[in-house]
Design goal:
There is one protein chain. The strands form two sheets. Strands 1, 2, 3, 4, 5, 6, 7, 8, 9, 10, 11, 12 and 15 form a 13-stranded mixed sheet that branches. A two-stranded antiparallel sheet has the order 13-14. By secondary structure, it is of the alpha+beta class. It is built from twelve helices and 15 strands. The protein is globular, with a radius of gyration of 23 Å. Residues about 100-105 and about 410-415 have low confidence and may be disordered. Helix content is about 30%, strand content about 25%. It starts with 5 loop residues before the first helix and ends with a helix. Helix 1 crosses helix 5.
């Protein structure tokens, strides 16, 4: 790992001083930030694995070489490493403010963003009270113990405020340089990873929660990621590896992009499972007046959006067969929500959701944004998916025969 420089330490100090200065002006923000972190922890319960892999995928967008993520549970310490771009000053400021993001999704073309601005990393508050970040860029940690003294100094100097008025010390507002680099972190950085997140679990009971959340990563998670090529899991001595390959298909007359996404899963050198998905996606879809339900305070102004739909692909006698999924999967906002898709296909969109991306609300008002996205998915299915199926051994009639809306309520079917 690149040794910490005086400029790194000075930058971290500047971030801390800026935050402390704002607390001196508005000490009420101390309680507001502490409460905000508690709410985020509740909203993101057991979502950390999805959020960290999404953040890593974003960081790999313009990186050459292998695009890898590794989850490693070592005793009561979880390490999450990636080969995305190193952590820089903008990343740290984003994490410390939780009010904007360094992702490129909407900077130039005002496209609907993925999730909520810069808050995904806060999902780790479910696991740890000392997030540590080691990077070939800038390394830092959040430590409530180290943050307490400077925040209490602010309170002690404030008029009409005492320590008794403070509900708690915010964790993710003051970044500090790490005191040392653990050996296992050094090994991962030497192995080609650019950033390693280290989370000491708050209690032994959280091991099972961590294992459960990581085990939820599956082949469906991989389909809508745009950059990741290898995912490694090392949990309690068992290992799993996921490989992801994407092949762009040039097909005349399609209005969407078509990729074949191949996902290979190997567990403890035993049987290897291989799956292929045909992913149809449309980007830069004009939103026009369909902004109902969007909070512009969290998303800003957006002009375009995107959707995707994926079906399983098999080959038989040299012919391509499109296949439904065996059960109704989760609706995706690039990562799975807790909403079930009404059709046996993987459906993805830049839906507007609650912070945790667990639910997608659709209302009956005429210009509801999420309803508009579902209409775009239906058009994608009725248009390009059925059109492409005519080039395969699967007929449009077969695909339409997979659709079953009997599980929906009567009101939902009428809508």
């Amino acid at each position: 790992m690149r040794p910490a420089t005086s400029s790194d330490s000075e930058f971290l100090k500047e971030v801390r001083n800026s935050r402390l200065s704002s607390y001196r002006s508005t000490p009420q923000d101390i309680n507001a930030h502490y409460s905000d972190e508690g709410q985020i922890q509740a909203d993101y319960h057991k979502r950390f694995a999805f959020e960290l892999i999404q953040n890593a995928d974003d960081a790999m967008a313009d990186v050459e070489g292998q695009k890898r993520v590794r989850f490693e549970l070592d005793g009561n310490t979880l390490l999450v490493a990636n080969t995305g771009r190193p952590i820089d000053e903008d990343d740290i400021e984003a994490l410390c403010t939780m009010s904007y993001t360094t992702k490129d999704a909407s900077e130039d073309d005002e496209e609907a963003p993925i999730g909520h601005k810069g808050r995904g990393f806060s999902s780790v508050l479910d696991l740890t009270d000392r997030p540590q970040v080691y990077s070939t860029g800038i390394s830092f940690e959040f430590d409530r113990g180290r943050a307490s003294d400077p925040i209490y100094e602010v309170v002690d100097s404030a008029e009409d405020w005492t320590r008794a008025d403070i509900n708690g010390i915010p964790l993710m507002r003051l970044p500090f340089p790490p005191k040392q680099t653990p050996e296992l972190v050094e090994e991962l950085l030497d192995d080609g990873f650019n950033t390693v997140f280290r989370f000491k679990l708050k209690s032994d009971d959280l091991r099972e929660d961590a294992l459960s959340a990581i085990s939820d990563l599956d082949k469906h998670t991989a389909v809508f990621l745009q950059n990741l090529e290898e995912l490694e899991l090392s949990l309690d001595g068992s290992t799993e590896e996921w490989g992801i390959q994407r092949e762009h298909k040039e097909v005349d007359d399609l209005q969407s992009n078509l990729e074949f996404v191949r996902v290979e899963h190997a567990e403890d050198e035993s049987k290897t499972d291989r799956s292929t998905f045909a992913l149809f996606s449309r980007q830069r879809i004009p939103i026009s007046e369909n902004i109902g339900g969007i909070d512009t305070n969290t998303w800003g102004e957006v002009d375009t959006t995107r959707v995707g739909l994926a079906l399983r692909v098999t080959r038989n006698s040299g012919e391509i067969h499109l296949e439904p999924l065996e059960e109704r999967p989760s609706l995706h906002v690039f990562l799975p929500t807790e909403e079930r898709c009404p059709i046996p296909a993987l459906v993805n969109g830049a839906f507007y959701t609650k912070i945790s991306r667990t639910s997608v609300d659709v209302t009956a008002d005429e210009n509801n944004y999420n309803a508009f996205l579902l209409e775009q998915v239906a058009e994608l299915l009725a248009g390009d998916v059925l059109s492409y199926s005519e080039r395969t051994a699967t007929s449009p009639a077969q695909i339409l025969g997979w659709l079953d809306f009997t599980h929906l309520t009567e009101n939902a079917r009428e809508a």
